[in-house]
Amino acid sequence: MRHFLTLADFTKEELLEMVALAQKIKTQTKQKKYVPYLQHQTLGMIFEKSSTRTRVSFETGIYQLGGVGLFLSANDIQLGRGEPMKDTARVISRMVDMVMIRTFEQSKLEEFAQFSNVPVINGLTDSYHPVQLMTDYLTMIEFNKDKSPIVAYVGDGNNMAHSWLMLASIMGFELRIATPKGYECHNKIIEQAYQFAQQSKATITITNNPQEAVIGADVVTTDTWISMGQEDKKEEKIKAFTNFIVDDKMMKLAKNDAIFLHCLPAYRGYEVSDEIFENHSEVIFTEAENRLHMQKGIMVWLDMHR
Ligand code: CP
Ligand code: NVA
After folding, report:
1. Where are the domains of the chain?
2. pLDDT tens-digit readout, 74-113
3. What 3-state class would DSSP assign to 124?
C-alpha cells in the first residue's frame, strides 16, 4: 500500500502514470462518462485548516468515481478535543477506504499514515502541497509548458515552494526560486532537491532576487505571502515582500508567451497585481479545475497499488 504524503516518495515514472490517469479521467468526465473506478468507496477528508478548492475537488472527485466523501472538520471530530492522531487513524481507517488530511506539521500526517490501514493523501501541510503541484504539472502539459521549461517561483519559501522543488528535481526541469532574505526554503528540502537533480538533470537556482529568477521564464508562479496559521506575521511579512509582487514589470522579464500559475486563493496587490491575475485568469482557473481531475488520477492510482 502506498501513501501520497510528499512527491519525494515517488519516481518520475509513477508521477507520470498518475498524470496519464488524470488526463484519461478528465477526457471521460468532459464527455459526461463517469466511470466508477472507486465504486462504493468512502474518502474521509480531515481538515484542520480552511479550504475551498481542496474540499470541493476531493468531495466531487470521489463522487464522480462512484464513491462518497466524508467532510471531517477537526473542530467537529474528537481530534479537535485532543483525541490522539494515532487513535483517530486506527478508527477512521477501519471504516473508510482512503483518507485525505490537511493539517499543520508534516509529522502529524506521517503519524496518521503510520497507523492507517488505508492510503493517506496529503491535502496540504506546513511543509508540502503535493496534490497542488501535480495539478500544476498537468496544467503545464495542457498549455505546452512541460518540455524543458524554466519555472520561476517568486515569493515565500513555503509549502508551495518546497513542493515545486520536489516536482522540478524529480521531473528534471529548471526551477528558480526567489524569496526575500529570511524567508528561504528549508535547507533540508533544498538539499534533497539538489540530490534528486543529480539524477534527473534538473537545474535548481535559489536566489533573493526576483527579477533574476523571472528573466526568460516560461512559467511564473507565486503564492500568498501569509500562509494559513501565519496571520500574526502579516505586518512583518508584507514589509519584507514589497519587491516580490508579480506585476506587469516583473512579468515582462519572462518570455513573451509565459504563463502565470497561482494555486489560489490570490491576494491582489500583494503577491500578484490585479492586471496580471486577470490577464492570466484562463490558465489560473483551468489550474483550479484541474485539482478535480488530477486528484481523481491520484486516488485511482493509489487504489491500484494497494
Ligand atoms: N489551492 C488550494 O489548496 O486551495 P484551498 O485552500 O481553497 O483548498
Ligand atoms: N501556502 C498557502 C497555500 C494555500 C493553498 C497556505 O499554506 O496557506
Report:
1. 7-129+291-304, 132-286
2. 999 999 999 999 999 999 999 999 999 999 999 999 999 9
3. coil
Ligand 1 midpoint to CA 123 (Å): 9
pLDDT of the residue at 223: 98
Q: Does domain 132-286 have CATH number 3.40.50.1370?
A: yes
pLDDT recorded at residue 121: 99
Atom of ligand 2 nearest to the CA of 124: 7
Q: How far apart are CA 281 and CA 296, in angstroms?
A: 23
| CA angle (295 as vertex; 99, 190 as ends), nearest 5 | 90
Residues whose beta carbon lies within 6 Å of some atom of ligand 1? 51-54, 124, 132, 263-264
Q: What is the pLDDT of residue 192?
A: 98
Ligand 2 centre to CA of 224 (Å) is 7
7-129+291-304 and 132-286 share one CATH topology? yes
pLDDT of residue 231: 97
The 10s digit of each residue's pLDDT in 260-282 is 999 999 999 999 999 999 999 99
7-129+291-304 belongs to CATH 3.40.640.10: no
In ligand 1, the atom with minimum distance to the C-alpha of 264 is: 1
User: Residue 193 contacts by C-beta under 8 Å, 6 or more apart in sequence?
Assistant: 165, 166, 168, 169, 202, 204
- For 83, the grid coordinates are 483525541
Mutate to test the pocket of ligand 1, among 45, 51, 159, 262 (most ligand atoms within 8 A of CB): 51
Strands of the 42-47 sheet, one edge to the other: 68-73, 42-47, 98-102, 120-122
